[in-house]
Amino acid sequence: MKILFDHCVPRAAFREFSDIPSDHASRLGWEDLSNGALISAAERAGFTVLVTVDQGIPAQQSLRGRAISVLVVRAHPMNIAAIRRGVTQITTALSSIAPGEVKFVTIEPAPGP
Questions:
Q1: Greatest Cα-to-Cα distance within the chain, rounded to the nearest angstrom
Q2: Which of 9, 54, 55, 78 is most exposed by smallest CB count within 10 Å?
Q3: How far, in whole angstroms, is CA 49 from its chain's centroid?
Q4: CA 106 to chain centre
Q5: How far apart are the C-alpha atoms of 101 and 63, rounded to whole Å?
Q6: Per residue in 2-57, pLDDT tens?
Q7: What's the rounded Cα separation, in Å, for the pair 61 and 49?
Q8: 3-class secondary-structure state, position 104
């Protein structure tokens, strides 16, 4: 498994998954690629999962026949603290995602004071 974090995911997110080969779209200079172009570039580069917060990707892009899958993370606000709270959920979803599949993970807000 090799994970690409979309530019809309906090840049430091890939560091939370240091045991899995991963990178961030902005580190690769891909922050301006549209969804379809980003998926294609990621697939060509050997990424097997795109992690994004863009909930529209499943409706906009067909993954049929693709080697890459998409994990959509829902969190509000989307920040590195949310990613840290959701590491276990994200890792669990990644462990069972199949090529061409879209999965959703919802990270609950931090408890209030």
A1: 47
A2: 55
A3: 7
A4: 13
A5: 7
A6: 999 998 888 888 788 888 899 999 999 998 898 889 999 999 999 999 999 888 88
A7: 14
A8: strand
How far from chain centre, in Å, is Cα 103?
10
Query: Nearest Cα to 69, choosing from 88, 91, 96, 92?
Result: 96
- Which distant-in-sequence residues (6+ apart) come within 8 Å of 91 by Cβ? 17
Instruction: Give the other-Cβ count within 10 Å of 53's Cβ.
Output: 17
62 phi-psi bin (left φ>0, alpha ψ -120 to 50, beta other): beta
Q: How far is CA 99 from the centre of its chain?
A: 14
Distance of CA 4 to the CA centre of its chain: 6
